[in-house]
Amino acid sequence: MPASASGLPAHAAPLLAQVHYCSVECQRKHWGVGGHKAVCKARQAVRNAAVVEDTAPVRATGVPTTSPHASSAAPKRRGHQSGTCFICLGNDPTPIQSGCGCRGDGGLAHVECRVEVAVHDQQLATAGKEMMPWERCRTCGQLFVGAMQLGLSSALWHRSRDLPEKSSVRLAAAVGFGKALINNGKSSEAEPFLRASVAAAERAWGPNSPVVMSILSILGEALLDLGQIEQDDAKLHEAALLFARTRAVFMSVFGSEHEMTAGSATNLAEVLNLLDRTDEACPLYREALATYMRVGGAQYIQTLICALNLANALSSIGELDAATVLFAEHLPTAKRVLGPEHMTTLQMARSCAMNLRRLGQLADAEAMLVETLATQKRVCGREHPDTQDTAYRLGLVRKDIAQAHRANNSV
Predict the structure, then answer these.
(1) pLDDT of residue 365
(2) Which of 88, 312, 313, 324 is the most exposed place for a label (fewest CB within 10 A)?
(3) ∠ CA(179), CA(184), CA(188), 5° rounding?
(4) What percent of the chain has pLDDT over 90?
(5) How far apart are CA 201 and CA 167, in angstroms?
(6) Cα–Cα distance, 328 to 343 (Å, whole number)
(7) In this model, does residue 154 exceed pLDDT 60?
(8) What is the CATH number that goes with domain 317-411?
């Protein structure tokens, strides 16, 4: 917290020039065990490399707000200006949205700056939570998505890939990178990477280990994605076999109420739906949704994702009213909990719009798709598969509207 806000004097560190703490207790903790000296040394290294004077503050956690990305030609700033990275306060290169729950300029950051923060926070994390700084925003607590997720997971994998195959950090890095590739439309790159990761995990833990099943589930997601894109039923059938296998193992190891079991049921339902076996898919979705509600509640992200999948399945087979109930219940929750810029919120809004289209509510569908597309262009970029899919669906709705106008004018 800045000194002017806390009423406390700022400590003038000789290398950092200015440090703000929210309390005397916080200052003592940072000087004692919080890594103040290490931060000072790192800050001095940045200064020597840039050969510029820099008086950027340090947050109470001890993470320096200066990055090699800060331009030496840029004017000094006393606060976060619009369009700048909230960590280093620089805008060269242009920062990107973090895709978490932080709004507007508060979510803008350089990937490299987020990496620096994650490395620092990982060193201070308690046992079992070492990966959280790479996956979740420390401010809003939400998962990173989009380009930021891919950048952070790629950096973590390259830092971890030479660790022993049985290393939990290496495993988490592989899982995170595989998921990020899929989420960012790179399933063709994810498939060989995940097959290699499965082989490594089998050597380390055995072929039927839950660890191996976790990676197989992600491989199944890549195959499912590629099966849709390439219209390859062989990949879809392989994905179905993988999901059925992982569900059986998770059911045996964890029981029916565990979220890993629910996740495998959801994955199996999705591929069955794509194989035109929606009547088999919907009971699996309902089973998983009930489990997620009991485990995490209505605000749990897996609850929201499963509700979205079930609503899509119901809408596709003409159960539009049932789908409408699910969208009405869960879309406001997604906007409130995850934020309007989160990938899941945007996907749910797009699906809700297509359900409105099937109901004949074309004007409402168009308005929702226009808003969703504008947000996706800003957060994900114009080339992202989700952005392009929304643009395509908006085109379909506008074609329906034009046909309706022509029909009305001909009467």
Answers:
(1) 97
(2) 324
(3) 75
(4) 65
(5) 10
(6) 18
(7) yes
(8) 1.25.40.10
SS3 of residue 194 by DSSP: helix
Quote the pLDDT of residue 130: 82
- In order of 36, 53, 60, 149, the CA distances from 42 in angstroms are 10, 15, 16, 25
pTM, 2 dp: 0.63
What is the number of other CB atoms lying within 10 angstroms of the CB of residue 144? 26
Q: Which two tokens stand for residue 206?
A: 């055995």
Q: Is residue 291 scored above 50 in pLDDT? A: yes
pLDDT at 261 over 50: yes
Whether the predicted pLDDT of 62 surpasses 70 = no
Phi, psi of 94 (to 5 degrees): -65, 125
Class at the top of the CATH hierarchy for domain 186-296:
mainly alpha
Q: Supply 127's token pair.
A: 């046992």
**Per-residue model confidence (pLDDT) at position 106:** 87
pLDDT above 70 covers what percent of the chain? 80
User: Which bin fits 255, alpha (ψ -120 to 50), beta or left (φ > 0)?
Assistant: left
Long-range contact pairs involving 278-287 (C-beta distance under 8 Å, separation at least 24): 278/313, 278/316, 278/317, 279/317, 281/313, 282/310, 282/313, 282/314, 282/317, 285/309, 285/310, 285/313, 286/310, 287/262
Closest CA to 86 of 71, 72, 67: 67
pLDDT of residue 103: 73
The answer to whether the 186-296 and 317-411 domains have the same CATH topology is yes
H or E stretch covering 28 = helix 24-32
Tokens 């994905």, residue located: 239
- Long-range contacts of range 389-397, CB-CB < 8 Å, 24 or more positions apart? 389/350, 390/346, 390/350, 393/350, 393/353, 393/354, 393/369, 394/366, 394/369, 394/370, 396/357, 397/353, 397/357, 397/362, 397/365, 397/366, 397/369
- The ranges assigned to domains in the chain are 1-66, 78-184, 186-296, 317-411
